[in-house]
């Protein structure tokens, strides 16, 4: 396995394919008809028209409906390429190496690979992120929020019509210790711009009473997680709400479809806190269907590290995603030193 030297104190970045880093990026002027800019990162070219996003690379091209493309791009941007692979669909996506990132076409698709038409390039994460942010900013029109449930936002179609920078530059919640602690990320309230979502009108909003011994005000805290999630203004956006070493609780509210197929690079626990969510599980490298899991309130499942998944939720539901954030896990799994499943029966 190829490695690059890392700065002291930084984990080394693995590069199992030994790919060189691309450094060419270009933003083209707005098209005379559509009004949208086009973008180039390495050899990948991105254009959008009134209905579609088009991706071209040296030996192929791919078209996605622009609503699906923008919802997926929004997650990749907001999550900082997230854990493992973010499949925008069965063809295009990114794989995170934590400091560097691979962008691919067909590399997680067995038909592309069998035909030797898969294509991968590698980038510094911050450089690719810069052009992804430009793209989501330019391609998102006024009134459309790619983070929102489809029934709670406008439409993405048509020629360039304004923008929605407040929506596409939202900062993902990442608590340092826990939501609600002094100096940490605040609870959501009407006053700070987070009203209760229409589908969670029945969720009690009372908060726990905490009596703290003097001197422990910064150490003891509690908050109503259900009330907090009932006020989420976005969907499919796991936010870090509590941190104990590498253990990250990332609750989120879900409505309609998880806009990406997340290819895990570690095991990931899902605790369904309310309502119902249907998980579609596929093989991580081929995309073949492997399982469907129906999770109702109280159900718990664990995604293995070698799968990809998307999810459906008709009624907005609450989900607790539990991640082990250790940077060592992906390499341990690649080297066969850690299992691909969390539990063996
Ligand atoms: Fe996942």
Explain what this protein looks like in three dimensions:
With 345 residues, this protein is α+β, with helices and mostly antiparallel strands. The chain folds into two domains: 2-167, no CATH class; 173-233 and 235-334, Jelly Rolls, CATH 2.60.120.10. The protein is 14% helix and 32% strand. The chain has six helices and 20 strands. Strands 3, 9, 10, 11, 12, 13, 14, 15, 16, 17, 18, 19 and 20 form a 13-stranded mixed sheet that branches. A hairpin with a 2-residue loop joins strand 13 and strand 14 (247-257). The protein is globular, with a radius of gyration of 21 Å. The two termini are 32 Å apart. The structure holds fe (ii) ion. Fe (ii) ion (FE2) binds at residues 262, 264, 268, 303, 309.
Query: How many structurally independent domains?
Result: 2
What is the number of strand segments? 20
Summarize model confidence as the mean pLDDT. 94
Bound molecules: fe (ii) ion
* Radius of gyration (Å): 21 Å
The largest sheet is: 13 strands, mixed
- Give me the secondary-structure category: alpha+beta
Share of residues in helices: 10-25%
Reading the helices and strands in chain order gives EEEEEEEEHEEEHEHHHEEEEEEEEH
Query: How far do the termini sit from each other?
Result: 32 Å
Question: Which runs of at least 5 residues are low in confidence (pLDDT < 50)?
Answer: 1-6
- DSSP strand (E) fraction? 25-35%
The oligomeric state is single chain
